[in-house]
Specification:
It is a multi-pass membrane protein. The protein is mostly helical. The protein is built from 10 helices and 2 strands. Helix content is 59%, strand content 1%. The protein is globular.
């Protein structure tokens, strides 16, 4: 599937988390459309979500080019469609069961791993990252955000303003899409290669640590591409700075720190990896 791409309208109107405009008669803030569509599965575009997941690994830049279509038609950068979140949560459910059956002691710990993977690793961390990005990226790289000192507080969902503004919903879109390569490399590939990369050999250490470098590198690049697609943000290349830190830490880890041996048990909420798996 190749989505239609068109240029955004200049001087677009108010944007918000779900694309719903505020009432003109002072009726308050309407419920964001994202929440209204949480359980309307027939209206969700799972085909688009699958295309995005494939493109995030092969050509991530294409994913964020498609946002211009939503600006043109919906007057919002954010896509109020939870299909990507549901689909990735389902994939995390499957991988958590695989990790649990392989390393957990009993059904209760497997359920705990499942809850941790979906609600803590994915949703909570994505919310925290998107919240930090909403305040810092909008404040430092763009026109700022409403609600800070010196501005009239409008909240996170309805943001009327004079020009383009960073939406919290778009920050969440970027965060969950940046998490997909993390799932691919650290939840799937690492699980499949664990019998090899968890051994006490330098080659195992090299390939295991490289998995973490690649996954974090993808996360940083996708985050950069997401915010770089917004025409009102400036100097977004600063978001690539963490890659230099990751490379330095990766190089230092090659002198004896096997990341899969130390971080995979944390991924499993403290479960012990069997030696020689």
């Amino acid at each position: 599937m190749n989505p239609h791409i068109s240029l955004p309208r200049q001087h677009s109107g108010p944007s918000n988390f779900g694309g719903a405009a505020p009432s003109n008669r002072g009726e308050g803030i309407r419920m964001p459309r994202f929440f209204k569509r949480l359980f309307k599965f027939p209206q969700m575009d799972f085909e688009m979500a699958v295309w995005e997941m494939t493109s995030l690994i092969i050509a991530p830049k294409k994913v964020f080019r498609s946002i211009y279509y939503h600006v043109q038609t919906k007057n919002t950068w954010h896509r109020p469609d939870p299909s990507f979140t549901y689909l990735l949560s389902f994939f995390l459910l499957l991988t958590s069961l695989a990790w649990g059956l392989a390393y957990a002691d009993g059904f209760a710990r497997t359920v705990r791993i499942t809850l941790m993977f979906i609600f803590i690793h994915f949703l909570l961390i994505s919310l925290l990252v998107s919240t930090v990005a909403y305040f810092l990226v909008g404040r430092l790289l763009g026109p700022g955000i409403p609600g800070l000192p010196g501005r009239r507080r409008q909240g996170l969902f309805v943001q009327p303003g004079d020009g383009e503004q960073l939406e919290f919903g778009y920050c969440f879109d970027v965060s969950i899409r940046a998490f997909f390569p993390i799932w691919v490399f650290l939840y799937v590939v690492q699980f499949l290669l664990m019998p090899v990369i968890a051994r006490d050999y330098w080659v195992s250490l090299f390939f295991g640590n490289t998995l973490y470098l690649v996954s974090l590198g993808y996360y940083t690049i996708i985050t950069f591409l997401g915010y770089n697609a917004l025409p009102f943000l400036h100097h977004t290349e600063l978001l690539l700075a963490p890659t230099a830190v990751f490379v330095i830490l990766w190089f230092a880890s090659l002198f004896g720190l096997n990341l899969p041996q130390h971080l995979a048990p944390i991924l499993l909420t403290g479960a012990q990896l069997r030696k020689g798996v």
